[in-house]
Every structure is written in C-alpha cells, then in structure tokens.
Amino acid sequence: MDPYLLRKLNRERAARRAVIHLTDLGDGRDRVICEGDPVAGPLGEAVAAAFRSGKSGIAEADGRTFFLNVHLPPARIVVIGAVHISQALAQMAKIAGFDIAVIDPRTAFATEERFAGIDLVADWPEDVLKGRPLDAYTALVAVTHDPKIDDVPLSQALSADCFYIGALGSRKTHARRVERLTALGHTEAEIGRISAPIGLDIGAASPAEIAVAILGDIIQHLRRRALRGTAA
Amino acid sequence: MNETADDVLDPLAIAERWMDDGRMVALATVVETWGSAPRPVGSHLVIDGEGNFHGSVSGGCVEGAVISEAMDVISDGEPRMLEFGVADETAWRVGLSCGGRIRVYVERVG
C-alpha cells in the first residue's frame, strides 16, 4: 500500500466521507475511491454496490480479482434540545455505540450538570452546524418543539439527506411544521421522511421510554435503510 | 467531535502514525470469510518491523502466524494471501476454533 494512499484514506475517513480502498489481488496495485468518483465498467458497478451496501468483499471484474474495503462514516446522532428525553437518549445512545451531540441555545437546559460526559453545545443550531454539518450518516432528532430552534436544523437535515430525521410534537404541531418547511421550499416527499410523531410506536410514556422509542427508530432506519442511490 | 477509544485503537490511524515515526509497517486485512469467522471482512491488523501489532483479524487465534508472515512481507515487500481454517493441516496449531475459515491479505505500507 502506498503511504500516500494510506494518508488519503485516513483523511477521507476523518472528514466523514465514504471511501473504498480497492486492491487488485493479482498484482497488489491499489487505489482509494471516494464516493462519486467515476469508475467505468463492471468494476464501477461493484464499487457503486459496495458504497450502497457498506459491505466489504471480493469482486471479479474484467478477468481480475479485486478486494474492496468499504469505509462508511460511523453513524452519529445530533439532538436539538437539551430536554429530559435527551438526557436519557444521550446515555442510551452511548451504550448502543453511537457518537452523540446535544445542541440547545437555552442555557437553562444545556447545563453540564444535566449532561455530564456528553458532547453538549449551548448555542443556536444554525451556528453550531456550520462547524459540523449534517450528513447522510447522521440522525437528526429535534425535540424542543420550538420552531425558532427546531426548524433550521430540520430543514438542513432534509437537505443533507440525514438517514433519520425525527421531530417531537403533536399532530397539530407537526401540521404547522409541515407548512413552514414547505414554505422553505421542501417537497412533500422530503418532508414525509420526518418521523413524526417521533419514535417507534411502543406506547412510550415517560421521557426514558420515549428515548428508547427514538433510539429503536434510529437503529431501524440505520439497519433497514433502503440501498441509497449515489448519495450527494 | 470527541476522540473515542475507536480513534485511538484504529489500525489505519496507527499505521499512519507508525509510518510517520519511521517504522516499517505491514497491514493485514481479512478479505474473505466462510462460516463463523470471528472478525468481519475488512478488519485490519497492523504490524511493525519489531513485531508490535494493533487490531485483529481473528479472536486471537491466528494473529501469531499473521505477524510472522508480516515480518517476511516487510523485508521483501511482496504481498501475501494467507488462509486459515479447520480444513488446513496447520489447524491444530494455528486454526480457528470456531470452525470458520478466513483469508488474510498482508501487504507492506510503502
């Protein structure tokens, strides 16, 4: 493996971009392919399939045998709202192996004491997300049900094609939210991707139970997601 | 983003750090598995010229053999494909007790 390729591979992984390390097992020659890089022919089809499935493996193409090692960014959860549900969700998400961040501009909610050991940012989501943009490997959970706080990140999550987008609120609250997101230029199909009411329908009542429902919903979307077309 | 244990123990990140330290480095990768294999396809073991290693290609069953092959790869630069499994004659010494089979590709970095 070329040292330059190893650096490139690590750089792409650190930047949360999907990447494949492709090795010709016949002659040992290798290359790094970023998602969206053009690869022609049967090998291109194998590369596209590997990006979609996230599964590494051997592929035969043009009479040669290749190994494709697929590196998809690890899934992470961004929560808008440092509320009671988020306190439970943050702990559970860590146990389940997710990287999680909680964002809330309301300093009364976003306190170190309530979120000890959690990546917590007491600032407006639109400012925070500039430095760490949402992507297709991120789940966005909006639980303030305050449009001033939730709407911008929800809109950005739709544009970024987050693998899960959930928003807390009654059907009435959500109907008004749909109107606002439509006014922002989102299509009905895009807005239909939002899980609202949020979480799996397990009759969750307490904040901790709602956190279980949300986490279960996120895992279901992650593991059973339809194979993506070429992600943006 | 917080640095997690995964970042610290990530074999590819370690390979780059070792390379920057001027160490000779080989990378072993699980490229194929059959049956119940302990580590999935794509798993890495990184080895330096002194036999130090990080990561895993099995649950510890065949690492010793991979490391000794990696020493040869580091010295001659030729990649090698290794296969381990119960059907192998060496299975009783270095095999997978789980009954699976794996192929491991070992290459030099640089």
Automatic annotation (TrEMBL), chain A:
Q: Which Gene3D superfamilies match?
A: NAD(P)-binding Rossmann-like Domain
| Domain XdhC Rossmann positions | 77-218
For this entry, the protein name equals Xanthine dehydrogenase accessory factor
Q: Which domain of life is it from?
A: Bacteria
From TrEMBL, chain B:
> Which positions fall inside the XdhC- CoxI domain?
18-85
- InterPro entries with a match to the protein in the record: MoCofactor_Util/Proc, XdhC_CoxI
Q: Which PANTHER family does this entry report, sorted A to Z?
A: ALDEHYDE OXIDOREDUCTASE MOLYBDENUM COFACTOR ASSEMBLY PROTEIN, MOLYBDENUM COFACTOR INSERTION CHAPERONE PAOD
Query: Under which name does UniProt file this protein?
Result: Xanthine/CO dehydrogenase XdhC/CoxF family maturation factor
